[in-house]
Amino acid sequence: MEPPPTYTFRAASSDHDLRGILALQSVNLPETLSAAEFASQGFVTLRHDLALLREMNSPWPHIIATPSESDEVVAYALVMQEKFRERLPLLEPMFQRLNALSHRGRPIDALRWYVMGQICVAKAHRGRNLVEGLYAQHREQMARDFDLSITEISHANPRSLRAHVRAGWDIIHEFTADDGGEWAIVALDLRG
Fold first, then answer.
1. How are beta strands 106-107 and 113-121 bridged, if at all?
2. Residue 144 phi/psi, 5° resolution?
3. Which end of the chain is less crowded, N or C, counting CB atoms within 10 A of the terminal residue's CB?
């Protein structure tokens, strides 16, 4: 029996890395999944392009996971600054609510935060604590400059919501979007 792979968690540093993110993203969008996969395996909601990923990758790069023996991107967690909100209009309802919210008794607008723009783990590598590894790397990279990481998760994606709670994220708000979709806004304390 072959031993399980080990992984390297690191900053995305090349177009090869960014293309790896896009390749993984493309096979996890709702339109590429069967109904059973959508319900049980989770999905990503937003589609990015290479130019946008490049812009978002600076000054704080996205985090990727690769098997130690290859450079294939098998998991990623994107870093997104608020300045990109107009480029991803699906996130606007979250942004509109943030200043009225708090995390553990502290108003969001009094904290330094960024958006974890999307996370994804390749199907063959799920269940191996990659979500926790990606977020540990986020914390290491971002805690000097930020108090919180914030994202939103569709209630139609319970696998993702469970993974985030297991990794230490707190649900700080839930809402119904104009299209009827139900969402949870979650936050990760980078200092604790």
1. unpaired
2. -65, -30
3. N
